[in-house]
Write a structure and sequence with these properties.
It is built from 5 helices and 15 strands. The strands form 3 sheets. It has a 5-stranded mixed sheet with strand order 1-10-9-2-8. It has a 5-stranded mixed sheet with strand order 4-3-5-6-7. The longest helix has 14 residues. Helices cover about 20% and strands about 30% of the residues. By secondary structure, the chain is an alpha+beta fold. Helix 3 links the parallel strand 6 and strand 7.
Length: about 280
């Protein structure tokens, strides 16, 4: 494991960084909140991408390297969205965009826009700036995510269930009157059937029984310092080749116990290091 950890650190040192973009972030929806009059859209499970008018940057500030043909007709103003291929393909899109040398697989990736930073008006007015631009400069890559008006809580729940049934991650609701802001916003909320969080792998625990000679669980630490073990949600291949120590993973859980422990933590994915 020491060799893997060393390789991980060397691998990470090859990152090419730009200035980390100042983005808006989602808070978690509370069912007591009335969001009738807001807009909703599918939450795509891909890689966050920020086009600053010249280059494509990840949420963490890593400069991405799409082919020039992929960024043809991109605007000279900022747009923010999700690099995405299809539902339940997070690892696939991650493997495409993190390569220093782009390949033909980028043609499978679309840039799904949910924000046009620094423009005037609410979210619908800001997105219209991009829509007007694309009418004059069509792009095969850029797609504007449809924002659907929320007319009732039943409609909201029906839309969430529809997305989940299609193996989607969840939905996002936003207050259409809010002017552009960055940081974690109360006017931009994610809705899922479960909650998720990220943690850092501290230790790889050996398995027993059918998992003998494989990983049994991961011992992890969250950003708030909580220690937990995650033993489910892994494929056989992931148990044979588990995430390395020091890497970050995302897990889902279903609320907290009375002792403030995570209920039924389940592995979701490895947080990508957007490297060469």
């Amino acid at each position: 494991m020491k060799i893997k950890t060393l390789l991980f650190l060397l691998f990470s040192s090859c990152l090419v960084f730009a200035e980390k973009p100042d983005l808006f972030l989602l808070k978690t929806y509370n069912e007591k909140l009335d969001v009738v009059g807001w807009v909703m859209s599918e939450k795509l499970d891909g890689i966050r991408g920020f086009w600053d008018g010249e280059k494509l940057i990840s949420r963490g500030g890593v400069i991405l390297n799409p082919p020039k043909s992929w960024t043809a007709n991109f605007p000279n103003f900022a747009i923010d969205g999700e690099l995405w291929t299809k539902r339940a393909d997070f690892e696939g899109v991650s493997s495409i965009v993190r390569r220093k040398k782009p390949d033909s697989r980028w043609q499978k990736v679309s840039f799904n826009i949910f924000e046009v930073p620094n423009q005037k008006g609410g979210i619908l007015q800001r997105l219209k700036v991009l829509q007007d631009y694309l009418q004059q400069h069509p792009s095969k890559t850029i797609r504007i995510i449809q924002q659907i008006p929320v007319k009732s809580k039943q409609q909201l729940n029906d839309f969430l269930n529809e997305i989940i049934s299609k193996k989607g991650e969840g939905i996002v609701v936003r207050n259409p009157k809010t002017l552009y802001q960055t940081g974690r916003l109360s006017s931009a909320l994610k809705i899922k059937k479960y909650q998720d969080e990220e943690c850092t792998v501290l230790e790889i625990l050996s398995g027993k029984g059918k998992y003998s000679n494989k990983m049994g669980a991961l011992k992890c630490q969250t950003k708030t310092g909580k220690i937990l073990k995650i033993g489910s949600g892994f494929t056989d291949q992931q148990r044979q080749n588990p995430p390395i120590i020091g890497s970050e993973i995302t897990f889902k859980y279903y609320g907290l116990t009375n002792n403030k422990k995570y209920k039924h933590p389940v592995f979701l994915k490895i947080k990508p290091k957007l490297t060469h």
